[in-house]
Please model this.
Amino acid sequence: MHFIRLCYDEPGSLDLRHTHVEAHRAWFREHPLPLQILVAGPLCAADDQSREIGSFMLIEADSIDAVQALHDGDPFTAAGIFAEVRIDRLNKKTG
Model:
């Protein structure tokens, strides 16, 4: 199954995001995951491609529980960066 993890940052948390970005990247490199991240990256403001406002992931996993565990282990989550988080199943039709 495919899932979308869409996270929007707390307003004014860009410095906090930059403080924790290396721990965030290292966590994903160093922890074996029972899923596959197909596409991932920061969301950027439409009017300013350098201003990060959140995170996006397209994930292939057996269950939403695996995706939730990924989210819960992310150092960005622990740091309180996200104001809003959505994890939804994608009914993939093409691609």
